[in-house]
C-alpha cells in the first residue's frame, strides 16, 4: 500500500485542491481517531481514569436514546445510535437503568465538578414533565460538589418544548435548552419526516427567554432542495426572534440514510454549499452575533459568555469528558498539562501518554444486559498514542478558529508547526490560515474548510491504522481471534 506523503507544501496543496469541489464530512464529534478503529476489550472509563489521575477540568454528557419514528427513518440523515420511542414506560425503565449505571460511578464522582453538563440523545425532551425532577435528581445526587451555577443544557425538538416542561426543567437545574430545528421552511422540514412547524421554534424561544433559560437553535445548511433564499429567510427570521445562540452546521451525508440513498440528486452542489456557509457567516456577523466556532454564533453581550462548548477546546490543556448512558462517550486525554508537569521535565517527558476513549453499548439490549450483570456497559474503546492525542486535541482546538501555539508547546514540548509543516504552509498559501507567532488563525474560508484541514492532518495516521487493521485480519485464525476487531461506525454530524 502506497502512503500519501503530505510533508511538502506542494504535495499538501495538491491534496487540498483535489478535494475543494467535494462534499465535506464533519469529523468533530468523536475527534480522533474515528470509532471505526475502536475495539472491545479495552476496559471501562474507570480503568481509563483511575482515582488520582483526573484532569484539571471535565464535562459530563448524559444520554437518552429515544426518538420519535419518522418516515424516512432517522429523519433521513441522522447517523447517531438511537432507539424508537413508543411509550412512556420505556422512559421510566431507562431512567431505572441510568440510575444503576450511575451507582457504579458514585464513589468516583463524589468530588467531581464538571464545568458543564449536556443532556443529549436521542430526544431528551420526550420525557414527560413529571420525569425531569427524577432525571435531574439523579445527576445532582451523584455530583454533590456540583456548583450551583454550572451550565446544564438539555436538547430536544421544538414541538416537544412545552411551557410546562420548560418550567419544570428550569426549577430543577436546567439552565439552557438546545433545539434541533434543522430547517424552518416547512416543506424542507417535511423531507425529514419531522412534524414541527416554524411556530413551534419561535414559541419555545419566547418561553425560554421569559423563564431566563439560555437557548440555542440548530440549523443545517446543504439540505436537499435548499436554496440561498431558504437559508437567508430562515436566518433572518431566527435572528429576529432574539435567540441567544445559533448553531449553523453543514449536513453530513452518509451511511444507509434516505438522504444518501435517495436524495443525492437534490443536494446543493459543493460550490453552492460553500456559498451558503459564507452567506450565513456574513448575515450573522453583520447582525448581532459573534462567531465562536466554525458553526456556532452567539449574540453579543449574551449572558452565556462562559458556556463551555462540547466540540471546542480553546487550549490543549487536559480536559476529561465523562459519558453516562446509552452510547455515551467518555474521553480522557493523558498528558502533562501545565498543572501536572514539573519545570524540570524535558520535552520528551511532556505529553508522553495518549489517554483513552470509550463508548457505551449502542443497543438497549446490550446496555441493559451489562447493567443486569453489574458491569459498566462499555462496548468499545481506544487507547491513544501521543500522536493520536495531539491530533485529537488539534481537531478540537481548530474549532476555536485558531490553533494556540503557546498552549501546544506547554502541553507537548514542541511547536505545532513542527508537526505537519507542509500542510500548514499549503493551508496558508490557499488562504485558509494566517500563521502568526501566537497562533495559526483561520480565515473565513479556512473556518469553512476545517473538515478538509482535519482530513489532511489525519491522513498519514489513518493510513497507519488502516494498514495495522488489515494486517491483523491476515494473521492466523488462532492469533486473530484474540483481539476484537474494530467496530465500524460512520461519523455522525455534530
Pick out its properties.
17% strand; TIM Barrel; nine-stranded mixed sheet; alpha/beta; Arc Repressor Mutant, subunit A; globular; 494 residues; disordered C terminus; 17 helices; three-stranded antiparallel sheet
Descriptive report:
44% of the residues are buried. The chain has helices spanning 9-19, 45-48, 88-109, 132-142, 163-171, 186-190, 198-211, 228-240, 258-262, 270-286, 364-372, 386-398, 405-412, 421-429, 444-448, 450-473, 477-480; strands spanning 57-64, 66-67, 83-84, 117-121, 152-156, 176-182, 214-221, 245-250, 289-291, 296-299, 319-325, 329-332, 356-360, 378-383, 402-404, 433-435, 439-442. The protein folds into 2 domains: 1-33 and 387-471, Arc Repressor Mutant, subunit A (Orthogonal Bundle); 57-299, TIM Barrel. The chain has 494 residues and is an alpha/beta fold. The chain is built from 17 helices and 17 strands. The strands form 4 sheets. The chain has a 9-stranded mixed sheet, with helices on one face. The protein has a 3-stranded antiparallel sheet with strand order 12-13-14, with no helix packed on it. Helix 1 crosses helix 14.
Amino acid at each position: 500500500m502506497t502512503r500519501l506523503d503530505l510533508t511538502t507544501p506542494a504535495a499538501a496543496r495538491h491534496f487540498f485542491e483535489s478535494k475543494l469541489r467535494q462534499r465535506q464530512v464533519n469529523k468533530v464529534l468523536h475527534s480522533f481517531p474515528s470509532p471505526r478503529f475502536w475495539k472491545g476489550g479495552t476496559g471501562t472509563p474507570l480503568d481509563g481514569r483511575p482515582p488520582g489521575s483526573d484532569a484539571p477540568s471535565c464535562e459530563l454528557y448524559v444520554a437518552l436514546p429515544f426518538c420519535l419514528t419518522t418516515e424516512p427513518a432517522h429523519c433521513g440523515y441522522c447517523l447517531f445510535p438511537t432507539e424508537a420511542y413508543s411509550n412512556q414506560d420505556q422512559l421510566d425503565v431507562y431512567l431505572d437503568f441510568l440510575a444503576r449505571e450511575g451507582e457504579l460511578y458514585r464513589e468516583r464522582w463524589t468530588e467531581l465538578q464538571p464545568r458543564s453538563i449536556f443532556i443529549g440523545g436521542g430526544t431528551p425532551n420526550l420525557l414527560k414533565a413529571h420525569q425531569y425532577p427524577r432525571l435531574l435528581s439523579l445527576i445532582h445526587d451523584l455530583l454533590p460538589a456540583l456548583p450551583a451555577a454550572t451550565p446544564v443544557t438539555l436538547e430536544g425538538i421544538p414541538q416537544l418544548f412545552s411551557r410546562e416542561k420548560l418550567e419544570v426543567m428550569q426549577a430543577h437545574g436546567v439552565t439552557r435548552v438546545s433545539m434541533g430545528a434543522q430547517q424552518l421552511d416547512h416543506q424542507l422540514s417535511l423531507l425529514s419526516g419531522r412534524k414541527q412547524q416554524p411556530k413551534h421554534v419561535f414559541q419555545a424561544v419566547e418561553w425560554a427567554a421569559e423563564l431566563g433559560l439560555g437557548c440555542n437553535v440548530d440549523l443545517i445548511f446543504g439540505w436537499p432542495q435548499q436554496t440561498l433564499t431558504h437559508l437567508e429567510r430562515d436566518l433572518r427570521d431566527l435572528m429576529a426572534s432574539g435567540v441567544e445562540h445559533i448553531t449553523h452546521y453543514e449536513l453530513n451525508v452518509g451511511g444507509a440514510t434516505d438522504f444518501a440513498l435517495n436524495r443525492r440528486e437534490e443536494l446543493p452542489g459543493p460550490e453552492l454549499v460553500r456559498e451558503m456557509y459564507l452567506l450565513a457567516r456574513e448575515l450573522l456577523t453583520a447582525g448581532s452575533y459573534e462567531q465562536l466556532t466554525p458553526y456556532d454564533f452567539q449574540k453579543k453581550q449574551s449572558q452565556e459568555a462562559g458556556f463551555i462548548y462540547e466540540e471546542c477546546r480553546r487550549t490543549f490543556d487536559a480536559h476529561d469528558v465523562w459519558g453516562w448512558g446509552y452510547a455515551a462517550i467518555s474521553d480522557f486525554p493523558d498528558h502533562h498539562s501545565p498543572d501536572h508537569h514539573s519545570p524540570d521535565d524535558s520535552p520528551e517527558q511532556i505529553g508522553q501518554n495518549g489517554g483513552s476513549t470509550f463508548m457505551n453499548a449502542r443497543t438497549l439490549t446490550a446496555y441493559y444486559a451489562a447493567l443486569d450483570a453489574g458491569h459498566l456497559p462499555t462496548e468499545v474503546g481506544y487507547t491513544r498514542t501521543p500522536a493520536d492525542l495531539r491530533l485529537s486535541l488539534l481537531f478540537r482546538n481548530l474549532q476555536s478558529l485558531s490553533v494556540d501555539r503557546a498552549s501546544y508547546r506547554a502541553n507537548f514540548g514542541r511547536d505545532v508547526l513542527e508537526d505537519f509543516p507542509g500542510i500548514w504552509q499549503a493551508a496558508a498559501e490557499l488562504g485558509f490560515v494566517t500563521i502568526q507567532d501566537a497562533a495559526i488563525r483561520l480565515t473565513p474560508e479556512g473556518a469553512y474548510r476545517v473538515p478538509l484541514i482535519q482530513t489532511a492532518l489525519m491522513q498519514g495516521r489513518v493510513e497507519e491504522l488502516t494498514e495495522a487493521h488489515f494486517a491483523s485480519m491476515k494473521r492466523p485464525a488462532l492469533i486473530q481471534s484474540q483481539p476484537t476487531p474494530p467496530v465500524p461506525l460512520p461519523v455522525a454530524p455534530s
